[in-house]
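Structure ticket #2291
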Amino acid sequence: MHEGYRGSLEQAVESYAHWWREAGLHTAIDAAPHGWREAPAAPFWQRDAGAVREAKQAAPVSVPQQPRVAEVVAPAPRPTAMPNALPAFLDWFGSDAGQPEAAWDGALILPPAIEHARLLVIIEMPGISASDSATLVEPGQRRFIDAMLASLGIKPEEAPCVSLAARRPPGGLLDEATIGRLAQRMTHYLGLTAPGAAIILGDRTSRALIGPRWTPTGDGLQKINPEEGRIQAVSLPGLDLLMGRPAAKAKSWQALRLLQGMLNR
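Resolution: structure written out below.
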């Protein structure tokens, strides 16, 4: 009790007990749950211990159940059916609220409306600073891709670069369910545009597009099976790995030579 207090000892005790009650402590020692939404309980100095014990045994306190998360969070809209014409598909791609990227931040980078491209380069997601199709990959990666295409006798404009994800996902990570949905959409796009062949960069992207036939050590040509026809593809490691490990680059060149022979027929 501080020196400036003028009340009696009884008033001090009552004030102290009232403070404890306002703080939500209705009893000195009580491990049983309290029904916070019921009528306020009597202060502990006015309660009969025996009567309270009998009341608890006769009527256990019911704790209100919290609503499940599924009842609070609205389910994400499902994407509508993919159109079978390229212009309608791209309109659907960019406007459908059920796309995985609909809730992500960043620029929406759609694949180009180019049919029968000589080659298509497919990556998993846009780079960190990507804002449009010209900046889909970092400048150093773009130069590496252009040099790789030049070794095949292909100009950059003959081989557009596209991404499974039209936006970079939060944290730069795609879960298996999402990458599976994106691969289905890309496969449909390939069926509509019918490129001559494809280079797939990254193990996760290759596994999603090629399916169970893909293996990490696959050196030959692979097949992507859209609804209409088959597209030959080369599965290569990701750009960072290719640029940082000369051994991976040398091994990839063997697969690229097979692709070059097919394109030059």
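Closing remark: The longest helix spans residues 176-193.
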